[in-house]
Amino acid sequence: MPKAFLFDVGNVIISFDFTITAQKLAPQCDVSPEEAFRRVALLTDRLESGHITAEEFIETAIERIGYKGSPLELRTAFEDIFTLNLPMVDFIESLHREQIPLHLLSNTNAIHVPFFEKTYPVFKCFSGRIYSHEVGCMKPSPEIYRIAIETLSLDPEETIYIDDLEANCAAGREAGLQTIRYDREAHEAFLSEVAGAISAK
């Protein structure tokens, strides 16, 4: 059995859809949902890399899309964009019951983290967290993997890292992690790959 697992969040544990936000905000915006989505998306990397605060993000988004509602309404619409991946939750909880250390490594932000950690109990299974907005860099930068390995005291060769994006997986392999790319539409194949990785140890 590996000494630890390191999980991505988006499209692994929870899927997300930013167009949900655009549709919710549309009645009070000066632009179409498609244009609102485009303008807000341009801000997201700055938020997720920690270059702007949540408050600055909300203020700038309101200006860019001509939003007539309150900052709280915009924040609420931006928060609730997730769908829980129940098969992955079952897998995580099974590892947790075996007392295997579980950690998170995610490109995310100061708006989404409080929401999904409060909303979905599965996040209580994780003992370590590296979030991009807190460390000031994002996957697939080698720096964030170095930070994760050092901060979480990981042995890369004994850590299975799970991510849905190939660029992130490639960076994980470069950092020495046992990397498995996750496809939500092929969960059983993922479980088989994990089993193979474990039996090979």
Task: Name the poorly predicted regions.
Answer: none
Beta-strand segment tally = 7
Mean pLDDT: 95
User: What's the order of the H and E elements?
Assistant: EEHHHHEHEHEHHEHEH
Q: Helix/strand-derived class? A: alpha/beta
Provide structural commentary:
- The protein contains ten helices and seven strands.
- By secondary structure, it is an alpha/beta fold.
- It folds into two domains: 4-15 and 82-199, Rossmann fold (3-Layer(aba) Sandwich); 18-79, Orthogonal Bundle (DNA polymerase, domain 1).
- The strands form two sheets. The protein has a five-stranded parallel beta sheet with strand order 5-4-1-6-7, sandwiched between helices. A two-stranded antiparallel sheet has the order 2-3.
- Helix 1 (19-25) packs antiparallel against helix 4.
- The chain is elongated.
- It starts with a strand and ends with a helix.
- The relative contact order is 0.18.
- The mean pLDDT is 95.
List the helices and strands and how they pair.
Layout: E1 4-7, E2 14-16, H1 19-25, H2 33-48, H3 54-65, H4 71-79, E3 82-84, H5 86-97, E4 102-106, H6 112-119, E5 128-131, H7 132-135, H8 142-151, E6 159-163, H9 166-174, E7 178-181, H10 187-199
Parallel strand pairs: 1-4, 1-6, 4-5, 6-7
Antiparallel strand pairs: 2-3
Helix pairs in contact: 1-2, 1-4, 2-3
